[in-house]
Amino acid sequence: MMTGQKKRQLMIFTGTVVLLVIAAVAYLTRPPALRPDVVQNWSASLTPVYGKTVVTQTFVPTSGALSAVVVRSAIYKPIKEGEVVWRLYRLDSDTKKTLLAVRQVPASTIESGAIRDFAFTAIPDSLGKTFQFTISAPELTKDAPLAVLLSGKMSFEKPYPLNRTLIAGKDTDQDLDFIAYSRRSNLDVLRTFLAGRGRFIQVGAPWWFGAIVAGVAVAAGLMLARFWEAGAFGDEE
Amino acid sequence: MAQRAVLAVLAVTLLLGMLFATMTPIWQTPDEPTHTAYIENIAYRHRIPSASEEITPAIYGSLKKTGFWPELTRSIRWLGGRTLLITAAGHPPLYYLTVAPVFWASTPFGLNGQVYVLRLFGVLMALVTVWLAYKTAAVLFPDDVFIQVLTAALVGLHPMFLFVMASVNNDVLVNPLFAAAFYVLTLFLVKGFNSRRAIALGVILGLGVATKVSFVVMIPVAFVVLAVRAVMSRSVKKAARDAGLTALATTASASWLFLLNYRLYGALFGNAAGAGNSPGWSKFISLSALRDYFFGKIGPQYWGMFGWLSISMNRHVYEALNLFSAVAGVGLIVWLVRAYRRKKLKSQLVVSLLMLAGTAIGIVVAVMRFDILTGGGSQGRYLFTALLPISLFLAVGIRGLTPDGLRKYILPAAGAGFLGLCMLALFGYILPHFYLL
After folding, report:
1. What is the ipTM of this complex?
2. With contacts defined as CB-CB under 8 Å, which chain A residues touch B5?
3. Residues 43-102 of A with CB under 8 A from B
């Protein structure tokens, strides 16, 4: 016959395990969230953008559902008029590109070092495709231009070898300071972790990971039941 | 009763530690490559490297293959170049000598597997720390199961502590040694002298100094404790004998280190680092500077800032933990007042609590001093040497605010809260940060 205390402990144990399972299901089925994809935020220098100058950044998302691009810009002195135009293209071939989104931002709203995000409808098949965004400010002048921050390529390794940056049509050895975001679900993240790709500890792979997680759930249930027992100690006296 | 609950804490700590070890990519814990290079030198070349040497080719190759630099520069400004030096070689060698045979024996698993095995060694050391925290609380509060269990839980379910212990770093040995020193010193103050304890204390001091220089802070503490206990028990002769035994055991257990230092550097105490240009204590002179340091830097790093301090949690998480600490601080005062009124504050307990509080404050000051000397180089994890007293005081504080009838609810709630924090750190921050691409 089970005592009242034992019953309560069994309830806490079962409740904890069930709650953890529910939390796991909720975690894995959560709607995809914006997560950094291509990250090139190593600000090193500035370049002015005005008149006919167009800055072009090419990049290849490393995960699906490209959803936003964030760039860092600056101003040398306050700008009263004019707009900054941001365009996103998909490069279909060397000669053909498709315009996917356009954003126009009043230049007067830009502050030095400010981060500006350009969000758009998620592009579900973006994985591995080449995209390009451009920044221009045709109404601005040399006296009061916009400045975009360039991200210095590390001397030892370039994280994204397919990136390419053009300033007024000329190749540079730097990238723009930008981050491209994709919408990824927790399930996608977990899949990436379990896939490994050689840079992880990777001992035993999925079954090992699953066994430890299951062990945590059981041990946590046991622990909280014991905590209840320890907390109740002396109550009868 | 308490022991069964603490055994369950140990099981959870072990499994959570394994998750931290498994889910954190190789080399993505602070200084892991340089600590591993130190171990590799001992394991395969049977020599202690110097701090001006570059990391070994095998580790360099793995860093390159696993995208170490791109990963790091995604979130922090990496000021070093492609070359990494074995900067860990400035540390005393005990940790590296201890794990070198493990590293060597796990050679068939490859470098990834070897690092994983070393991380698991750290997780085992976390279990030792949890157990010592529980034992210390049990010596001080033998009738209070709540404090004993909560102290163990606050150590074993601490997300940043688990992250650090599940890494290759000499912190994984020095943290349990600090806990062991606190435990033996508490035994001294509460239960009195005995030769075995004196020798154990000496050995712990010797091993601690041979693991990390920060451990020297415990040497004056130990001898002050011996002196205080001598005054309390009025047996100066016995105290002098025990102090002698402790000193002898310390010297004996650390003598090899002094000889090694002499051989390597021509000085018994090794190559002490000099102070750089720094603004001195004036850096901390204002309240706002202290607030920025404790709540803006060290506090968040203490509770959880993962990777190479690049993965912060949401600021509300830190605010909640600060609130928890503040509530516990109020509770501690309540508990002390109540215990004083009920005449439960025996002299041994008071002196032990003063020793723990004084040492913890000393460690905080030492970490601040390190920040000054290195121009901002201190990290929250350095406070884990004082994790035992900090957790104990937090537990006493929570006990002070918990009516007897609510203990059975508060204890599981606190356990669930910290377990949830660890899960949040693992699945909400570490996993999405590292496994996106």
Report:
1. 0.88
2. 223, 226-227, 229-230
3. 62-63
